[in-house]
Amino acid sequence: MWHKVRFGVLVGMLLAGGLWATSHHHKHAHKKQQQEEKQLEGPQPLVSDTEIGLRTIPLEDEKDLKLHSYDFHKKPPGESQRFERAYENAPPMIPHDTTGLLPITKESNQCLGCHAPDVASSVGATPVPKSHLFDFRNNHPTKDGNVSDARFNCTQCHAPQANAQPLVKNNFKPVFTNKTLEFRSDFMDVVDVGVKGANTKGSSKP
Ligand code: HEC
Ligand code: HEC
């Protein structure tokens, strides 16, 4: 009889201990899982994505986004007016319509149809400058006066201008060395300025 009671107590203690251990383990595992899930979500943002810019629309959804209306210049080449350079030797903006001229492909570059040095003056276009006929990687003019491959994709640097109003005021004011540089570049004449000994190296002059 006494034995049985002792045995019962023992079994009971074992059971209780087992239960406590498993529940403790479960609780622990649950907490760990929650922590891992939180980590997967990444750090919590301190500022909402609607507060970080002028857009005020969630970055992951475009449905409420309203664009201001804007137009690119519609005047065809020859009827437009060139823009003042953004700063000295900046790539000029395209002042004319580009409809039908893009995209530029390996087979077809219509820009060169007017801006290649040998045709430009006959169509009243500005010829590509000397810098576009120079291989800067190997430091010599390109073969046969061709436009460098690095300059073939004109719209990589030259963009048309839209009549959109800036959302943020820009206080930048360019300073030009002289008046002509507001509408022309002289990049190749000044590319070595400030480079010590640049004009003696590789030059045929002693
Ligand atoms: C049909 C001839 C023609 C074609 C094709 C053409 N342009 Fe022009 N481009 C001109 C003329 C002419 C001007 C001078 C301004 C004017 O009257 O439009 C000009 C001006 C420019 C200017 C401004 C130059 C400056 O000094 O401010 C850039 C940049 C330009 N074009 C880039 C391009 C690019 C890039 C393409 C190809 C997408 C292209 N053009 C295709 C004729 C052409
Ligand atoms: C890697 C950028 C880049 C690419 C690509 C490029 N340009 Fe330019 N372009 C410039 C910069 C910068 C200038 C001004 C400085 C200079 O003359 O090098 C310029 C100047 C010009 C000018 C004005 C020349 C002058 O006398 O004021 C014309 C026209 C022009 N580019 C046409 C083109 C055309 C057409 C193509 C494509 C065949 C082209 N560019 C490709 C960067 C580029």
From TrEMBL:
Entries under InterPro entries matching the protein: Multihaem_cyt_sf, NapB
Main subcellular location: periplasm
Domain of life where this protein originates: Bacteria
Pfam family, one: NapB
Record's subcellular location: Periplasm
Keyword tags: Electron transport, Heme, Iron, Metal-binding, Oxidoreductase, Periplasm, Signal, Transport
Gene3D superfamilies in the record: Flavocytochrome C3, Chain A (1.10.1130.10)
GO molecular function: nitrate reductase (cytochrome) activity
Region annotated Disordered, chain positions: 25-45
Family: Belongs to the NapB family.
Name of the protein described by the UniProt record: Periplasmic nitrate reductase, electron transfer subunit
Species name: Helicobacter baculiformis
Lineage: Bacteria, Pseudomonadati, Campylobacterota, Epsilonproteobacteria, Campylobacterales
